[in-house]
From TrEMBL:
Pfam families listed in its UniProt record: DUF4199 (PF13858)
Membrane spanning residue stretches: 39-61, 73-92, 104-126
Protein name: DUF4199 domain-containing protein
Keyword entries, A-Z: Membrane, Transmembrane, Transmembrane helix
Matches recorded under InterPro entries: DUF4199
Highest classification ranks of the organism: Bacteria, Pseudomonadati, Bacteroidota, Cytophagia, Cytophagales
Highest taxon of the lineage: Bacteria
Length: 201
């Protein structure tokens, strides 16, 4: 007598249906995963902040006063960086544009990064080069103010303005860093506002 073992057969599994490509949900671009505002601001701000320090080094190695009036030419870098960041931000929000607040925020954040890096690097530069270079700068600044004292005295309260300018000269690495930070921040924010309005779309 033969025995036959019963084999249990499970339920049949239907193959998963494959949807045609046109019926798949649209995917968002991967570039939207990291914050475009933060990404763009840090990139533009870091590059521009480094350029500000390179300009100071160039003045130093070319026997120019790195603390003098020529250093202020780098004050134009933050506004350029702010506009550039707002232009680059538009790539992530086509075709409707980033909007007013994102555009303005990117410009201001870029300016803040520039100001922080420029101030920090100038502080380190002043510490490393020592007080001798600062004293040389102060001597040149006092001489320049002395030569223009007559122009101050022609104005109302000119003597007070002259004395205040002389008194407010930066004399320490921290003083130079503070001056650098506020100047870079001021000019960048000044341009970020109208730039954000025009580049919001």
């Amino acid at each position: 007598m033969r025995c036959f073992a019963a084999v249990a057969v499970g339920p049949l599994v239907r193959p998963t249906s494959i949807l045609p490509p046109h019926s798949l949900p649209a995917l968002k671009p991967t570039t939207a995963t990291p914050s475009p505002v933060l990404r763009t601001a840090v990139l533009c701000g870091a590059i521009t902040g480094a350029l500000c320090f390179v300009w100071v080094l160039f003045l130093y190695v070319s026997d120019n006063n790195p603390y003098g009036p020529k250093r202020t030419l780098a004050d134009f870098f933050p506004p350029i960086a702010a506009i550039a960041s707002q232009v680059l931000l538009r790539r992530y929000y086509q075709p409707e544009g980033p909007g007013l607040w994102k555009s303005i925020g990117t410009g201001m954040l870029t300016t803040l990064v520039v100001a922080l890096i420029a101030a920090a690097t100038l502080y380190l530069f002043a510490r490393l080069t020592g007080p001798g270079l600062i004293e040389q700068h102060l001597a040149e600044a006092r001489l320049l103010l002395e030569n223009t004292k007559a122009l101050y005295l022609k104005e109302a309260n000119g003597l007070q303005q002259y004395e205040a300018t002389l008194r407010n000269l930066a004399r320490t690495p921290a003083g130079f860093a503070q001056d650098e930070f506020f100047k870079k921040l001021f000019f960048g924010v000044l341009i970020s506002l109208p730039g954000g309005v025009f580049l919001r779309k």
